[in-house]
Amino acid sequence: MKEVINSLNYLSNWPSAGSFEFNTNILETNIINISVVLGVLVYFGKGVEKARARLWEVEKRVDEIRVNGYLQIEQEKENLIKAASANLKQLEDSKNETIFFEQQKVIDQVRQQISYQALQKALAIMNNCLNTDLHLRMIDYNIGRLRAKKPN
Predict the structure, then answer these.
(1) Where are the alpha helices (DSSP H) in the chain?
(2) Which pTM value belongs to this model?
(3) Would you list the domain boundaries of the chain?
(4) What whole-number distance in Å separates Cα of residue 96 and Cα of residue 104?
(5) What's the chain's Rg over C-alpha atoms?
(6) Where are the alpha helices (DSSP H) in 16-30?
(7) Minimal CA–CA distance to 102: which of 90, 114, 110?
(8) What angle is formed at CA 91 by the lines to CA 90 and CA 95, rounded to 5 degrees?
(9) For residue 12, how many other CB atoms are within 10 A of its CB?
């Protein structure tokens, strides 16, 4: 409260400026200076507006480029994912074909071994069962069959 009272006392002791009046002397009123300052402000104000317009256009273009960049990045990412997926599928197919080929190869080898073993066993049985007498009778029998089929 004491500060407010001190402030009011200070203002009451301030010398009064006198009455309000218009000064018509151009040199004393700085109208020329004010006109120059206003002219400069208007001149540079137009430049500022043009600069703001260019800045807005540049910011708009930057935003477009940024959005297009993000879209292009997403598209490239999707393309890479698709290519990787296609490569993975191709590798999987190649693996399956190789496995199938190897299985067929093993199956063929087993068949050949079984056929060979069966043939060897059959030959062994025939060699054990056939003696010379039975062998000669079989040959005579087959020759007789061939003569019977021979047309005259």
Answers:
(1) 2-12, 26-29, 31-129, 132-149
(2) 0.43
(3) 29-149
(4) 12
(5) 58
(6) 26-29
(7) 110
(8) 120
(9) 7
